[in-house]
Design a protein that fits this description.
Blueprint (H helix, E strand, L loop, with lengths): L2 E8 L11 H12 L2 E8 L12 E4 L4 H11 L3 H9 L4 E4 L1 H6 L2 E3 L5 E3 L7 E4 L5 E8 L6 E8 L1 E4 L8 E5 L9 E2 L1 E3 L2 E4 L1 E2 L2 H4 L1 H15 L6 H4 L8
Parallel strand pairs: 1-2, 1-3, 3-4, 4-14
Antiparallel strand pairs: 5-6, 7-10, 8-9, 8-11, 9-15, 11-12, 13-14
Helix pairs in contact: 1-6
The protein binds glutamine (GLN).
Glutamine binds next to helix 2 and strand 9.
Length: about 230
């Protein structure tokens, strides 16, 4: 392998519902075709996260119970995570992880679960309802379509500097009201898509890997990596 990337899997032993860990398999699959080795490390409770030690970060989703536990711990990683994000580090966050990057999430029982506020969104809860089902969105800039499956109680509202990952064509999205789904902020992608998102939407995996390679190897000729064709068969 010519290249190697250090990947942090945030709270991988706690937030890993609906096959979210499959995103790492998809990243490995595409990374291999880009001559790139991934060294994946779970960073969980009481572990140190140092922004400079990682080239790519994945943060999955989970139940409110686990999210509350993570919420208490992630406060100690807030500064370094915010630094990583502000410096343009690539990060993919799904559902619970996406919620925890924002200011707070009001859980299904009304409990306020604080996030790190690195991104400006916040998440409210629905009364006795969840958004569940297949979803299709379209990104306005790239015109890429993303397919997925959503299952969440939270209703997320985007804030300053945040663009949606896509506009909802069918399904519910961030909040069921404004047609937005997910977020793009600097090189952070957030989404409610389980499934996992990267197996069905390889172009996103490619964006993340290319960004990580460009940051780590600014002098490298990445022509072969950029030319990689993504086959999406669904
Ligand atoms: N517990 C959160 C919610 O219901 C996140 C769920 C998830 O990650 N699937 O909105």
């Amino acid at each position: 392998m010519n290249y190697s990337l250090n990947v942090a899997h945030l709270y991988g032993n706690l937030l890993n519902t609906y096959g979210d860990n499959g995103n790492l398999l998809a990243l490995k699959y595409y990374a291999k075709q880009m001559n790139t080795d991934l060294n994946i490390k779970v960073i969980s409770l009481d572990d140190e996260f140092k922004a400079d030690n990682f080239d790519l970060v994945f943060f999955g989703g989970g139940q409110d119970y686990e999210q509350l536990i993570v919420s208490k711990d992630i406060a100690s990683k807030k500064d370094e995570l915010t630094k990583y994000i502000d410096d343009g580090g690539p990060l993919l966050a799904i559902c619970g992880g996406y919620q925890l990057l924002g200011h707070y999430y009001i859980g299904a029982n009304g409990e306020k679960i604080p996030g790190i506020g690195a991104l400006d969104h916040y998440t409210l809860s629905q009364d006795n309802n969840r958004f569940i089902g297949n979803i299709l969105i379209k990104n306005k800039r790239t015109h890429e379509e993303y397919h997925g499956f959503e299952n969440h109680n939270g209703m997320t509202f985007l804030g300053k500097g945040e663009e949606p990952l896509g506009i909802v064509e069918s399904g519910h999205g961030n909040n069921g009201q404004d047609k937005t789904e997910g977020v793009i902020y600097k090189n952070v992608y957030g989404s409610y898509f389980h499934g996992p998102i990267l197996t069905r939407n390889g172009s996103l995996a490619k964006h993340l890997l290319i960004t990580a390679l460009e940051r780590k190897y600014p002098q490298a000729d990445l022509t072969q990596q950029r030319a990689l064709k993504i086959s999406e068969t669904f």
